[in-house]
Amino acid sequence: MGATTTKTVAVTGNTAVAEALRQLNPDVMAAYPITPSTEIMQQFTTFVSNGKVDTEVVLAESEHSAMSACIGAAAAGGRVATATSSQGLALMWEMLHIAAGDRLPILLAVVNRALSSPINIHGDHSDGMGARDCGWIQLYSENAQEAYDNTVMAFRIAENTDVRLPIMVGMDGFITSHSIMTMQYLPDDAVKKFVGPYQAMEPLLDIEHPRSYGALVLTDYYIEHKRAEHEAMLKAKKVVQDVFAEFGKLSGRKYDMFESYRLEDAEIVIIAVSSAAGTVKDEIDRYREKGIKAGLLKLRVFRPFPYEEAGAALKNAKAVCVMDRADSYGGYGPLFMEIASAVQPYRQGPVLFNKIYGLGGRDLMPKDVQQVIDETIEVAKTGKVKLVKDYITVRN
Amino acid sequence: MSTTTQETPLTLKALSRKQERFTSGHRMCAGCGAPTIVRQILLAIDEPVAVANATGCLEVSTCIYPYTAWKTPWMHSAFENAAATAAGMEAMYRSLKKQGKYKNNVKFLAFGGDGGTYDIGFQALSGAMERGHQLLYICYDNGAYMNTGIQRSSATPPCADTTTCPVGSVNPGKQQRRKDLTRIMAAHGAYAAQASPSNWKDLMTKVRKAIASNGPAYLGVISPCNRGWRSQLNDSILMSRLAVDTCYWPLYEVEQKGKKWNITYDPKDKKKPIVDFLKPQGRFKNMFAPGNEQSLVDFQKMIDEEWESLKKLQEMSKS
Questions:
Q1: Which residues of B touch A204 (CB under 8 A)?
Q2: Is pTM, for the whole model, over 0.90?
Q3: Contact at CB, B72 and A210, closer than 8 angstroms
Q4: I need a labelling partner for B209 at 20 to 30 A (CA). Which of A199, A335, A355, B59 fits?
């Protein structure tokens, strides 16, 4: 039957996301297994096999077909969810753009894992960051609680009639997906009420009003379609914040575009996404005890990116180190480039520099964060950066 | 056991009274076989139909924003995934019906050219057929990637001239035989058949059987392309009839999960030599050049072997 009250549980990120999906009860899930997201599918199909959800599952023969089936199902007119990682997300790449271009509010749980080559099954953000231009709303989760909460909120954001864009919820592969956290589940009826019934918009199954999806659009109308997508992303920012506020009232956990951890008066700022933020927070506390005005900006919403809010939050900092768990080879890390854009209106803004860390699941240890904070302090003092972009956590 | 649903009789009189779900005004080439095939298929089905369509001639020419020729629900998503897209549509339909959220009775079709079916679309097609979706996949087979300018596909016949296997002083055009996709589909246990717009009643009967099977079904239809074949613009139906009468494109069906093979049309004494199909097509011009007589002999041998093989399968499945 399921939970009727808020439950405190000790579960992995994958289990928490599978539970959220059970409570959301999508009409169709088309998925393909890949480490470390496979468990989401496995646990969900156990729900299916025991009649705990109404979901029709399509065990697609590849991730490209999984996302294609999700697109067909969403256009037909119902709620659709899926999960993947790394190579699976990469294989879906073409279809991700199509899902967004077709304005289909599909939910995708991405258990962030390194992209080949070399092949590596562990956590980093190269998969999600590699898909940042495809028009999906992107949320990142620090831990299992955030992953669960983001998943519960996802349809409400994506399905909003001002938005109608697909949405990705990321969590770190193995670090979050496979480690156990004490967290809270909401009751089934609370989730059901929060997500509400699905309002199909222009569904294919409305046979009285036949529609054509996926027209060829030539030079005369293509850019207008993409401009409309851009407008939807602009509107998504407010919708995300409204949904966060409503969820906060329901759960007691009020989220924002980013978490400002001791950021208000911070001169030394670290910026990070997902699980590494946890390690950084501990170090921020230690440095604060020593009298250093250190703070963390933990970004939660990567798309739409909160440029104005992040810029305003950082404008008085002296030095900011942006930590990226992905790289753009030949460029700076993806998060760095966004933060630089956020801060560029401020002439007297902080000095920025970029550290690439943790690729392929390389651990970020407290001592690594200490080195980063120490360097940030040095940059704040001198106003100068030795190397704008460098790798840390690398063997000598 | 499935029975063929027969609401509208398959007569020209009755069919001509039906409202068409595919309008004129689309931009397919004059003489293209595909729109005729689509109309025949849609006329054969009485129920509401939702269509997934792979990228290709049919898709790009029938739905150019802000116009569409499709008066039935239709979706194009990408090139290699008409079968996967249709599978998703069909899964949503079954889900909503099961939950009591949807009442109508809808049939699901997917259209793809030989490019989007034999090659890039092969995986998605195989997956959808294997999973058993209630879906009829139709391949309009013109034997090359025509939309992008006549490139070779695995459905291109041997010796054909295409822009990626052009006939030259060293190479004789396409060197491999055609992939036998219909047999591969039969091996999936799906209802599998070949049809031709020249034999419209046979085509429509097969469409109805496929739909009535309530399972995965595949229909390969020969679709003449006067541009790619370098044949006469107004000879589309003639070319498809020649394809059938020379046994280049045998009309047959496979039922009962690959066990029952049925040749639905045997040209018998009307059977023509393969040169009758090859000669009107400029893409086979090289075969008729002096010194290349063996290529015609080999081609006829290949056709004869395939036809004999089909007849044997039919005989075996009768016992």
A1: 50, 73-75, 89
A2: yes
A3: yes
A4: B59
